[in-house]
Amino acid sequence: MKNAGEVKNSRLVRSAFVFAACFLVLLVVEFLMIVINDPDGWTQYFREEVTAVITLVVCTFLLCFIIFYYYYFEDKEFLAETSNVVLVFFLFTIAVVLSYVFGKYINIYARPDAFLALVCVFLFNRRQAIMLNFIFSILMFVIDTYTNNFAADGATAQVYYALMLNFVCGTFAIFAVGKNKTRGGLLLTGCVIAIPTVIIVTLLQVTTFYNNWIGFVVCLGCGVLGCLVSAALALALMPVFEGLFNRLTVFRLRELTSTNAPLLVRLQREAPGTFNHSLIVAQLSETCAVAIGENAELARAAAYYHDVGKLKQPDCFTENQTDYNVHDELMPELSADIIRSHAQDGYELLTAARFPKIIADVAREHHGTLPIKYFYNKAMKLSGGDADVADYSYLGPTPQTKIAAIVMIADASEAAARAMTDRSPANVERTVRSIIEERMDLDQFGECDITMRELTIIKQTLVEALSGVHHHRVKYPAIRFNRARQAVSEEENRG
User: Fold this and answer.
1) What is the pLDDT of residues 337-394, one digit of tens each?
2) Which domains does the chain have, with CATH numbers?
3) What is the value of pTM for the model shown?
4) CB-CB contact of 92 with 139 (8 Å)
């Protein structure tokens, strides 16, 4: 059997072949531009401009290699997923085609220069978006320079104008979008980036103002149009990329955590106890994620769905039971198997529903390889001490991310706090500390990069939150009011 390193290397090799295939597709698109620009003379162009065509191929290859080189050293896990490679080139191809169409049939300033940057900052992250926007700007410069995109006088100047707009507008869009978490805000970003675009176009075309002020105004209008089109296209195509490549964005996170989400509606209807437990765990997980600087919305979404596997047999779990407990009639081996199966069932359910992998992974990892104490203890009593703890433990894997570790701790802490009669801060602190220490002793955090400092912060955050969620209330006096607003004690009322 291959070890983890060999598997990862084989995936990287496969990704390299996918990279090569995507590079060839991108070349085909570039050659098609040459053909479309001159349907009758494109063969002559290829014969007479051999040096330009070779330069185009070599430069495109080098830019693609830089992308591969970047991910190889910065994020091998990203690179190992072939779907990520396809997505990057899919975005590049669409951006190239859009720039070509708008530049050829409208105006070079009307190109949606910020489209790729806006999409990448949501589908990936800011650092990757900056790198990809830089590569895309150089790629379009190469295409404009070594194809027949521009044949009129002043073509060289237009090529450099396009390079400046691509790079500056895309970079500005990445930072202008900030921490925007709404689709409406994305559209507003298109208006915001129009401001620097107008300034850039003005500086580039200021010398033509007196000679051709109408053309100057047209260039300004096209620049604004390009910004608005960039935002509109990013907004329109984002759900397509999310769905086709199963990517997680802030927009999709909000949709998944809406109480109208199909699986949450089903959980509320079929397993109300689990649903209420998940709501509290989500609140706790979100607070802990904020405290240690993790993605709070991702933590909340993962916690919402961490117990969704209980939908398969909701009545077998305490929080959904009333007076009847099915486990009273079952052997502890079978009960343990039912209980631990909800982790894998949740993973399979979320995977089948095309949920992002990180959320499905949390459903499978949030119990790690912990023993199911109640049924192990029951088996020990029935067997006279002859029971294997492995037969009464979850199958794992242990948490692979900090989010999974947070949900694991929050899940156990909420359940323990709910069962406590004395929920004073000191007692809650003792319980949460015991939960974390037990998981450390059982090496549940060995495969995620969570630190002792972060675990301490999580403990303190949970103590504060649980003391507030499960606080004691003042006992209400046994008095009720009648319609005349006269107070009557419960004893008198019953009499």
Assistant:
1) 999 999 999 999 999 999 999 999 999 999 999 999 999 999 998 888 888 899 999 9
2) 4-247 (1.10.1760.20), 252-469 (1.10.3210)
3) 0.84
4) yes
